[in-house]
Design goal:
Length: 82
Amino acid sequence: MSVKELVGIVVSDKMMNTRIIAVNSRVPHKNYKKVITRTKRYVAHDSEFNTQIGDKVKIQETRPLSKTKRWALINVLEKSSK
């Protein structure tokens, strides 16, 4: 089984070792076939504190680290301009 990887934007960095990542996906509407954007938020582990809000990052599925944390931050693809 392959490991899932997603690309998203950091939307919260208020917790220690944890970041909230928003991942947008474009899917067609079931009835009308119009393409709509769905946003899902993932809780990811970041032990190096090298991200801030607005950064574009890649996350990878991992073992459960806490009640809601099942993803780990792999690398920063693009730093925010802040």
